[in-house]
Amino acid sequence: MKFSYATLPDHPVQELLDTIALADDLGFFGAYGADETYHKDCWQIFAAASARTSRIRMGPCVTHVILKDPTILAHQIATLDELSNGRADIVYSIGNIAMLEQYHVDWKTGGQIKRLREAHHVMR
Predict the structure, then answer these.
(1) What is the pTM of this model?
(2) How far apart are CA 5 and CA 20, in angstroms?
(3) In this structure, how many other beta carbons lie within 10 angstroms of the beta carbon of residue 56?
(4) Are 121 and 71 in contact (CB under 8 A)?
């Protein structure tokens, strides 16, 4: 069984970095965080954490491809992967209905699946 740490990046950055380093010391498999506009930037937090850790995998627990361009996401994950020596993970989706409605994205049209396929192609 593998254990991972998940966070909503709302705490002070130093506290988040200390917790991720502790999870690495304790042998946790991964550290994941929300990549949403309501929280601190998980990409920067994980970039900083990569210098303080050696084994733990890290990345957003889920990032969305509706509000973020897939080429930007590809750059972010590639950079984190290089900084962490191959320990970056990415999970992506179209987002949740509340988020889509907040940004006035009509989720009932089904166009999001096309965007998800496009994102998959671009990021591969």
Answers:
(1) 0.88
(2) 8
(3) 25
(4) no
Residue 58 is encoded by which pair of tokens?
A: 């890290």
In angstroms, rounded to a whole number, what is the distance separating the alpha carbons of residues 60 and 4? 12
Q: Concatenated DSSP letters for 81-103?
A: HHHTTS-B---EES--HHHHHHT
Query: Taking the CA of residue 87 as centre, how many other CA atoms within 13 Å lie in the half-sphere pointing to its CB?
Result: 21
Over residues 64-85, mean pLDDT: 93
Contact 58, 46 (CB under 8 A): yes
Q: What type of residue sits at position 25?
A: D
Strands 30-33 and 63-64: unpaired
Strands 63-64 and 92-93: parallel
pLDDT at position 18: 98
